[in-house]
Amino acid sequence: ADTLGAAAAGQGRYFGAAVAANHLGEAQYAATLNREFNSVTPENEMKWDAVEPNRGSFSFSRADQIVNHARGQGMKVRGHTLVWHSQLPGWVSGLAASDLRSAMNNHITQVMTHYKGNIDSWDVVNEAFQDGGSGARRSSPFQDKLGNGFIEEAFRTARATDPAAKLCYNDYNTDGVNAKSTAVYNMVKDFKARGVPIDCVGFQSHFNPNSPVPSDYRANLQRFADLGVDVQITELDIEGSGQAQATNYGNVVRACLAVSRCTGLTVWGIPDKYSWRASGTPLLFDDNYNKKPAYTAALSALGGT
Ligand code: G3I
């Protein structure tokens, strides 16, 4: 296989990219996406502020553009994200508890119904835990007004809406074994014990010199898989360049392949110029869509050439 998607498919995995609707008209962007990837995550277009900017009034056109493009190419789509404290419209944060609960459940129901049949996995809840050693939940309108039970409620509503979609919890700085990942681990363990519907855990995997690829990355993915959920690498990017960056990309791909329940990887953008890390070069393609050494390392770790 000579593309990321085909090589990953040969290993029973997908290889995806975060996509922004406003770049789809750029010929090289679309050509690279279509050639290399077999899964897509909308980078911003499915977030709450994009799809329900005003209460009860939904605007799906930009997200639809991405989903239609991807499905037309036979790609999978990851839904990102239903319940998150960021990119949340002001009207949501202003609601009192009982109203907030019905707004959350309505949002999940409406968005998942619109995309039913087209989304492989949903990030139902994103980034609900604090950084640092406390293992505590992050303060947010959902946490502060609905309490710990909001995550469980979101997953139950999601399952009732689209029983065929895989339901994921997604977070960052949970890639190695640490206090934050252990807090998420304990939540997933509790959900499995009590029959709360959860199918997968997403590990964002935004790496940089201050937050390098952890040495226990594979072991951490494996301990989650051992709970009976799939694991996915959902927002991979690695600051750096040249051979050092390439080695890191190869290590990440190999960690996923070593865990049978690691079902796929998604990189958080295509060319460096469109990375959310404005000044960085964390992706697999340079600004002219040339393949970087990191690309070659990822492809070869997947068994491609
Ligand atoms: O669309 C508006 C535009 O209308 C406005 O003029 C412009 C001025 O600031 O902003 C545009 O919105 C920006 C949006 O991206 C779309 O480009 C926001 O400012 C900007 O903050 C937003 O950044 C996104 C970020 O999430 C916001 O939290 C990044 O593109 C996106 O890559 C990033 O993705 C997150 C994941 O969803 C969750 N995990 C972390 C990851 C990286 O931060």
From TrEMBL:
- Which keywords, in A-to-Z order, does the entry hold? Carbohydrate metabolism, Glycosidase, Hydrolase, Polysaccharide degradation, Signal, Xylan degradation
User: Active site located where?
Assistant: E235
Q: Which GO terms describe its biological process?
A: xylan catabolic process
What are the residue boundaries of the GH10 domain, all occurrences included? 1-301
One MF term from GO for this chain?
endo-1,4-beta-xylanase activity
Q: Which reaction does it catalyse?
A: Endohydrolysis of (1->4)-beta-D-xylosidic linkages in xylans
Entry EC number(s): 3.2.1.8
Can you tell me which family this protein belongs to? Belongs to the glycosyl hydrolase 10 (cellulase F) family.
Protein name per its UniProtKB record: Beta-xylanase
